[in-house]
Amino acid sequence: MRPRRQAVLPALAFASALALTGCGAGAAVDAEVGTGFTDSGMRVGQCYLISTPEEYGASSHTGPAVACSEPHTTQTFLVATVPQPLSEQTERPLHEQLQNLTARLCPAAELRRYLGGTERDATTGMAITGYYPTRADWSAGSRTVRCDVLTTTADMAPRESRGDLKDALAGPDSAPIRLCYVQEITDGVLGSEGTDTSCSEPHTTEDVSAWFGQDASLVPLVAQQERCLPFVLDFLNVDVLPADVEVRPIVRVDGGARAVRCGVALRQSAGPERWTGTLAPVAGTVSGEVANG
């Protein structure tokens, strides 16, 4: 059985119930994505302060952009265009029709690219939404879609940020948006299961975005580690596992099925302890130290 990769951006939802999935096949992406301009003056990289569930779940947002160095909750990572046949309608499609387009027009793969991440990078505290033309703008001919990444708390409430998410996963301060796990430590023994947290919080293991079902052959820890090792090396961008790092799988039970999520952790001579930060290498380097969290 071949390992299956975990969704790089785990699904989160608001009133609009959007999931961070989809490969973007068939999406009509605006030709000006590289420069970030749209026919309505939107710009890739702009930030917005959206603070109510009604705004999050709405089909359109007309509030002004704010500087990303100021408090904000969303950032535009892509601009797309409503495809046919919906684009040919004289009246704007129904809310449900528009929201169903979001996974296609605003795919997680595009967000990963905007964040400067690789297929081994998993994030937390994020969700995707799409904002469509208002009814008046639609009647005037606009078909532009603003794809925003939302920053959230653990309970999915809006979380204000002052940072620019462009290439954030490739920089030294990516820990707050990376997915890590907290395991129970009992009498110096680490539990096999773990709960999600940000890597900027105390944790025991960091996710490397690979998982597989746990069959009888994968019950022993050593078998899990062997299966996860290639993904950990890929995540660290090294050929040989550093002496101070170990492969640390996480066992999760979802819907009655047991799965192993591949992870990496600091090897500590005194026994397992919680730590903060990320082991992900900064762009252009190889892993060797915990990145600044």
Number of domains: 2
Main sheet characteristics: 6 strands, antiparallel
Please write the string of helix (H) and strand (E) elements.
EHEHHEHEEEEEEHEEE
Number of strands: 12
Structural class: alpha+beta
Written description of the protein model:
There is one protein chain. This protein is of the alpha+beta class and 293 residues long. It folds into 2 domains: 47-169, no CATH class; 175-266, no CATH class. Helix content is 15%, strand content 22%. It has 5 helices and 12 strands. The chain has helices at residues 53-57, 95-105, 108-114, 135-139, 221-236; strands spanning 47-48, 74-81, 126-131, 144-151, 179-182, 185-186, 189-190, 195-198, 205-213, 245-247, 250-254, 257-266. The strands form 3 sheets. Strands 5, 8, 9, 10, 11 and 12 form a 6-stranded antiparallel sheet that branches. Strands 1-2-4-3 form a 4-stranded antiparallel sheet. Strands 6-7 form a two-stranded antiparallel ribbon. Strand 6 (185-186) and strand 7 form a beta hairpin. The chain is elongated and about 65 Å long. Mean pLDDT is 83; it is low at 1-38.
